[in-house]
Design goal:
single chain; 133 residues; mainly beta; Jelly Rolls
Length: 133
């Protein structure tokens, strides 16, 4: 399953003034970045996601706090904990994802290789499982 996702370690640049992480398309982000969004303020810790993408690939980075992401290729499920701003989770197409267990201070930023397109989403799990056969 790891051919459809992987953790990316970002280089931390810093000194006594603090730390800096640079995100660059087609360098440490393995695609052209066309969309950036972030999730925060999930004070009731409600699960999010519950979808896959037909074509879209993304990198999820927990820039503050922590959360867990369950990734599923239709046969196997794995849980990835994001709790450091220098780690990103590359999630390629046709991977079901659910985000949960958000810390109160969690800010989850997502970089995507395309603009929002509702027709790229698979929101029904049974339809997803049929699509990955």
């Amino acid at each position: 399953m790891q051919d459809k996702y992987r953790l990316i370690n970002f280089k931390i640049l810093g000194d006594k003034r603090g730390s800096l992480i640079s995100l660059e398309q087609n360098k440490n982000i393995p695609f052209e970045i066309k969309r950036v969004y972030y999730i925060y303020g999930n004070s009731e810790n409600i699960r999010r996601g519950f979808h896959a993408h037909k074509k879209l690939q993304q990198v999820a980075i927990c820039i503050n706090g922590s959360c867990e992401i369950m990734i599923d290729n239709g046969k196997e499920k794995e849980i990835v904990i994001l709790n450091s701003p220098n780690k990103g989770l590359l999630i390629q197409n046709m991977i079901w994802r659910e985000m949960y267990n958000f810390s109160e201070d969690c800010i989850l930023m997502v970089l995507a290789d395309d603009f929002y397109d509702e027709s790229d989403y698979i929101r029904n799990y049974e339809e997803f499982k049929e699509g990955v056969k």
